[in-house]
Amino acid sequence: MSKLGQAKRIIFLKTADGQLFEVDEPVAMEFEIVKSFFDENEDAADDTVVPLPNVSAEPLAGIIEFCKAHVEFRANGAAGKDEVKKFNAEYIKEKSNEQLKELILAANYLNIKEMLDFLTETIANRLKNKSVEYVRAFFGIENDFTPQEEEAVRKEYEWAFEGVDED
Amino acid sequence: MSKIPLDIITDILCKQPVKSVLRFRAISKTCCSFVDGQDFIKMHLNHSLLTKSNLSLILKGLHLYTMEFDTLDTPLDLNHPLYIGGGTEVIGSSNGLIVLRNSEQDLALYNPSTRKLKRLPVSEIGLPSDSCSPGYVFYGFGQDPIKDDYKLLRMVQFKENDPDEVVSSSFGYEVKVYSLKTNSWRKISNLPRYLRYLFQFFYHLMFRRGYGVLASGSLHWVAPRRQELVDVPNLIVAFDLVKEEFRELSLPGYGDESDNINKNFQLDVGVLEGSLCVVCYRDQVYADVWMMKEYGVKESWTKLFTVKRPGTMNCLAFLRPLAYSKEGDKVLVEVNGEKLLWYDLEKKRLRSVRINGGPDSFGAEMCVGSLVPLNDGDSKIHGMKQREKEEKKKITNKKISTEVEVFLNWSGLISCQKGLSWFCNHLRIRAPKGKEEACEFGALFTACNGECPVETSEIAT
User: Fold this and answer.
1) Shortest CB distance from B22 goes to which of A109, A120, A157?
2) B13 is a domain residue
3) Which residue among A98, B88, B166, B405 is least crowded, i.e. fewest CB within 10 A of its CB?
4) Looking at the domain assignment, is residue B11 inside a domain?
5) Confidence bin at B205 (pLDDT 50/70/90)
6) How is chain A split into domains, by residue range?
7) What is the mean pLDDT of chain B?
8) Which chain A residues have a beta carbon less than 8 Å from that of B31?
9) What's residue B439's pLDDT?
């Protein structure tokens, strides 16, 4: 455990693809899974490496970037302000659906509630005007309707299929 | 491609507008029966209420319009199946359902988001004597949160046709409640004495056509003070939708000038985010908005803010709080039945909301987009049981299918070993026997949760 006057503590995280990350303690503690690791192993040495077998380096780097910014926002009392919205909008702007999915899986595994909430919101917005086929493919859900059944389900709310974006 | 866990898919579906959810029913069978289920409907509704998403205003003029709360710019026609050329009224709004009224004989429950309509059975007005005719009719609509039922209250006031005869208070009103679950009307007897004060000339004009205000599972009306009756101050009359009985509610103790206000001030009731409010008008210049922060507790009445009449208005006679802004720093108010304004709680200033088109004068009603169904309870339950049976049959006949996986993931049972036998019991499938089946289960758990929480040897026993 860090003591007053000591240099700020660094947490070591190791990804599935073997990369070692050095993360500031407050940022790493955003990850519920890391936090509970240290809660359960109170006497863990400072240089303990926490293995993250379900996360690879690319999404982890993205998650650290997000959490670092949000920890700072909170420290500056900027939570909920325009500054945060701007950062969030920039953060997802260039991300592909596939990248978002990787991030969401990693954030889910690491159990970061705030980020998960933001990511699901983002995906919900990307999907809301999309076709059934697009969303099916996005989630990787198999269509188990027979053509007749699907036709019947679509007929129930025909108007809900109007004004859908191109895939 | 990586597979997204089901609880995340659920989360994403909860954040969709109703129209998108209805479209995504066509994704798969599992998805369809899941979003049609009561649990999802509730989750979706709670998310919308909590985050103020899917929120709209219904503007009630000669025609009905709907306008998104997020943008507040362009009202669109609210097309509805009860349309008769205009004049359809909206009585209250609760969890995405509204009541449409053309006449006492032509009433319907409507969910504007799913476009589902249910016409109400006609309940004749029982006149107490031949010399009586129906006078004011008051309605109120809301949810009974205990039975998860939706109820419409109708109060018919009688008037004597012979002007020399005085109406006896014992038969001043007929009160009936319609329940969606039973699809029938029930007459309420033992009406309290104070109900007869629920009357004033022009009551319909002054009190939102007499529609009850829904807050905390009860409907509310103002029984205005009677100038000719010195001892009768303003009252709030409440009808409890759970117990189906009337109750009086205490008004705020307005501070020093309490006597003054109670006797001389015009009052109305309103609601803001589910909490009961009273609006107290002073000299047609000021309107004080009070909120009962803890329902039924007189001491919890808190003055939220005071609106001063803007210079551009002749009077400030009607003000209704509608909703807090998403940031919580402003309150949307409807003024004089024709204008929407933002009241900035910090700067204490009013700002007009500019609307393109729509009716010139209106009453606004907040309405959340929801999937709440209108099928009456019994047939719904029956239908679900039928479907459940079929599902069970299917599951017993083949190896563990996606339905089971869905069930496991959503029920949270995967992480508890006790849950396994319950789960097998519940689905009428036998617990896995032998190493092979146990391994299959184990593999399923792994697929669901990332790891197998149950020792395979334990499953086998």
Assistant:
1) A157
2) no
3) B166
4) no
5) low
6) 10-127
7) 79
8) 141
9) 52
B245 pLDDT more than 60: yes
Same domain, B109 and B249: yes
Q: Are the Cβ atoms of B114 and A157 closer than 8 angstroms?
A: yes
Let me know whether B291 and B394 are in one domain.
no
Q: Does residue B416 sit in the same domain as residue B360?
A: no
pLDDT digits (tens, 9 = 90+) for B173-201: 899 999 999 999 999 998 888 887 776 65
Total number of domains constituting chain B: 2
Q: Identify whether residues B122 and B197 lie together within a single domain.
A: yes
Domain range for residue B443?
Answer: 378-461
Model confidence at B356, pLDDT cuts 50, 70, 90, reads: confident
Residue in A61, A71, A53 with CA at minimum distance from that of residue A114 = A71
> Could you tell me what percent of chain B has a pLDDT over 70?
72
B358 and B390 in a single domain? The answer is: no
Are residue B170 and residue B201 in the same domain, yes or no?
yes
Instruction: Tell me the shortest Cα–Cα distance from A80 to chain B, in angstroms.
Output: 9
- pLDDT tops 50 at residue B393: no
Residues B346 and B273 in one domain: yes
Specify the range with the lowest mean pLDDT, choosing from B154-158, B207-211, B319-323, B404-408: B404-408
- Check whether residue B288 and residue B404 sit in a common domain: no
pLDDT (tens digit per residue) in B39-59? 999 999 999 999 999 999 999
Q: Best of B6, B7, B14, B23 to disrupt the A interface by mutation (most A CBs within 10 Å)?
A: B23
For domain A10-127, the CATH class is alpha beta
User: With an 8 Å Cβ cutoff, are B2 and A145 in contact?
Assistant: no
